[in-house]
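Fold it.
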Amino acid sequence: MESGTTEHGGDTLSSHLPESSSHYIPIKLEEYEPPVFSAKKLLKKAKEASQCDRRSIVTSLLRLFPVLEWLPCYSIKEQLLGDIISGLLVGIVAIPQSISYSILASQDPIYGLYTNFFCAIIYFFMATSHHNCVGSFGVLCLMIGESVNRQLKLAGFESGADASSLANATLNGTVACDKSCYAITVATSLTFLVGLYQILLGVFQLGFISVYLSEPLLSGFVTGSSLTILTSQVSLLLGLKIPRHDGVGSLILTWIEIFRYIWQTNICDLVTSLVSLVLIVPIKEINNLYKDKMKAPFPMELLVVIAGTLLSHFFNFKERYKSKICGNIPTGFKQPAVPDLSLLSNVALDALPIAIIGFAMTVSLSEIFGKKHGYPVRANQEMIAIGMGNLIPSFFYCFASCAALSKTLLKESTGCRTQISSLVSSFVLLLVLLWIAPLFYSLQTSILGVVTIVNLRGGLRKFADTPKMWQISKIDTVIWWVTMLSSSLISTELGLLIGVCFSLLCIIFRTQRPRATLLGKVSDSDIYEDQFNYKRIKSVANIKIFRFDTSLYYANKDYFRSSLFEKTGVNPSLVAAMKQKAEAKGQKNEDCFSSKFNCLKVTQKGAKKASTDVPVPSFDMHTLIIDCGAMQFLDSVGLSVLKETHQDYKKIGIQVLLANCNPSLRHLLQAGGWLTGMEDTELLFHSIHAAVQFVEKQPKAQRRSKMAEDYFLSPEAQDRFKDSSLDEHL
């Protein structure tokens, strides 16, 4: 506080200036004329925006396809090598993740490879981010899997009957469809809607919705979803065949099923899982620890997948130990198909949270790396890019995708310069799709479960950050825990909704009961600070300066009044009530006897009785200054509260002044009748110090605080007091 005082340029000079310089000088600012709405100007702008000339077409194409802007400036000599290396490494890592996340989304492994291949190509053409790596993301795959399983149950595939007896489920109403076919049909319809939602959000520039997903909320949601993913993969690690639970309480129900059937654990799958964890986790930690010194991380996941596939194939784990394997993975591409439009109404609500989480992750990562590397990122264009990266691939048997944090970090740390690296990664996946995919036939699903769990380390590590978060902000920590617990213990979609609602309630609570305090003057300066927080803060004689640290509106109007009365120690309503009570008692004693002497005697006795029966309120203030610097807005209720406060204090002889009002507050006060019949400078000031100077300039007789006795007798009774005292003296 002392350092802040010395840094103020006017503090050191004010103590040396003559006393006359501290006198109040009214300041009147001339405002600019506000822009007037004109339909002609609006039509003119709309006409200019809708012009279809060559220049506007080129500009629109450059905005829609940013690749046309940066690709002609691409430096092969400086950028190509880094893009190739990072693209190869990301492609290698994406192979096992694509297969493992497919199972998490309740899909066959081939569809995960399709997703990571197509979405990266679409994103290459339309993204403004140079470093984002889009593809399958664990949280989205979990939400997709839950939605797909709900639709499978509605279609009867989870009722326990075999697939042949359920062949009456149809695709687009024409082709018979088994469980696997119906699952990808639901996923493509869901992905189509997700992409459509994201494109609409980008076109109508509704990216501000992401501001309601705060960092603690997203972090808690990812951690809670990670716990759900971890729980769903435990059955793969143990080789258990248990029913998959979705919806409310799925995490608890899944653990109950695991312990119920744990005696059926497949020893081969358990040993494979433990060995894979022992091999992958330490190498992952070493890669993370020495990432600045290593040119490229060691691809332990891919090596474990290859080694596990070879061992499972040559030792025939499926026949000998009944281990579950991936099975046949076809090569090539399927013929494009239109998503089943009849399912859109069933998955419309499920697609909304997936779309919001997808674009929130994509936009946040693009802004982080764009700021780090110094290039602009357009959030609305990013939403259109990821939306098209979901909409178009939905015709090619893909499920929803977004920017993935782990792969983006890998991409950026291995020398990526542009989205050319995404094309290299897609080329690696293309090789797998065309020739290598069938070689993973004998790959155990327990290894895929290990790969999925290992990639959850980032979300699970957030538990270690909560103590530090608690020290910084307790409310943010509570938001994190509420979102994490609700998204894991209740359900993923409801957890996100509960987290958003709770976060908004916390904002309302902060504004409903903000900090309210009295300000004092820092010695020999024009700075006013909280006199309860700082030492050597002096109160201004007979002036109370009240600060309310938020906007005044209907939700906190009562708290504003109560805190104002508590801090100032003066409740004008009580003082006025006591005045009326005293005047009423004075009226009873105005009956006089026949002689003037007896009349004076009775009046004196009545006055003494009134003074002893009614307590005399005492307050050492004649002016109340309300600091409006923290008030961003007022609603009609807040304006009424200010006007009532002004009138109530005026009745008991205390003037109310407002300081630090922003222009919008000034306009509202003027429109609301605050300045009616009064001078502008009398009530509104540009600083607290100006208001204090104005009060100190007033004559003492004008700003003198009225004593309580003046209110307890009517003017006639006061005159009698004066007359009686004069007669007694004579």
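The mean pLDDT is 82.
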